[in-house]
Amino acid sequence: FRRCQHRMKELKELALVSSFMVGRGFGEGRPPACWFVTRAGLNEIADAKDVRVSDLPWVPDGSYRASKMLAHRLGVNAFFCALAEASRAHEGHCLATWRTEHWVRTRAAEVKPDGFGRYLHPDGSCEFYMEYDRGTEAFGALSTKLEGYLRLAIGWTKEGDLTGFPNLLTIVPEGVREGEVGSALRHAIGRLSVGGSLTTSFPLYVASEDSLTQLGVLGPVWRHIATDSDRLSLVDL
User: Fold this and answer.
1) CA nearest 112: which of 149, 142, 140, 156?
2) Which helix (H) or strand (E) holds 39?
3) How confident is the model at residue 25 (pLDDT cuts 50, 70, 90)?
4) For residue 10, which phi and psi values (nearest 5 degrees)?
5) Burial of 15 (0-12, 13-18, 19+ CB in 10 A)
6) Distance from C-alpha of 130 to C-alpha of 85, rounded to nearest angstrom
């Protein structure tokens, strides 16, 4: 950790990265710094990869500090970073793939996940789309979002077999929101007139931030919304 801090300080002195603090309420302590690559840093990355700056997935933006999406971005990044960190404590585990939202949305943008991951472990792997829900999205918008995933699942194979279809992991603030996600899924299924095995096999799993904090990202926190079965760990999905 100290080595990382030292290296980030060096990069900042070279103007390759910059940082800012996120405001917190009274008594909440000093917040961690938010770091981002500067234009000079982006040029260095492009040179190292021998590509154009425009070929890289994002552009430095001075409005990060005031962005209404900042808390959302930090939540998504925190989950993937926690997963990478947890994997280091287990032999044969690895977060092999982490793709940000700009890399995984479908061409027509019916599905716009907050991220995509592939987690390897000795018994296999778990591929997943990730949705970070802060509880601010209205019921109709949430249902419409799930409709997009359902359409993707319907077109996965002609026989309706979802083998190989990534899990849809949704993180919510607390338990009440889990029930709202379940209601939104049932509403989406009704609107699309989905029937057959898809209504029970659709791999939508929900976990609350409270349970993830208490049991860890590899703990038995994921509830299968379609069947409301016992909670599973990520390596069991």
Assistant:
1) 149
2) helix 39-49
3) low
4) -65, -45
5) exposed
6) 17
Tokens matching residue 154: 């319907």
**Rounded Cα–Cα distance for residues 35 and 21 (Å):** 9
Sign of CA dihedral 74, 109, 55, 97: positive
Half-sphere exposure of 89 (CA within 13 A, CB side): 7
Report residue 154: phi and psi, to 5°.
-60, -40
pLDDT in tens, 91-112: 999 999 999 887 777 666 578 8
Q: Are 211 and 199 in contact (CB under 8 A)?
A: no
Residue 99 and residue 168: Cα distance in Å, rounded?
Answer: 14
The C-alpha torsion from 52 through 57 and 58 to 59, rounded to 10°, is 0
pTM for the whole thing? 0.83
Gap between the Cα atoms of 108 and 155, Å rounded: 14
| Residues 130, 75: Cα–Cα separation, whole Å | 11
Torsion, CA 181, CA 186, CA 191, CA 193, rounded to 10: 140
- Looking at residue 101, its pLDDT comes to 82
For 156, the 3-state DSSP assignment is coil
Per-chain mean pLDDT for the chain: 88
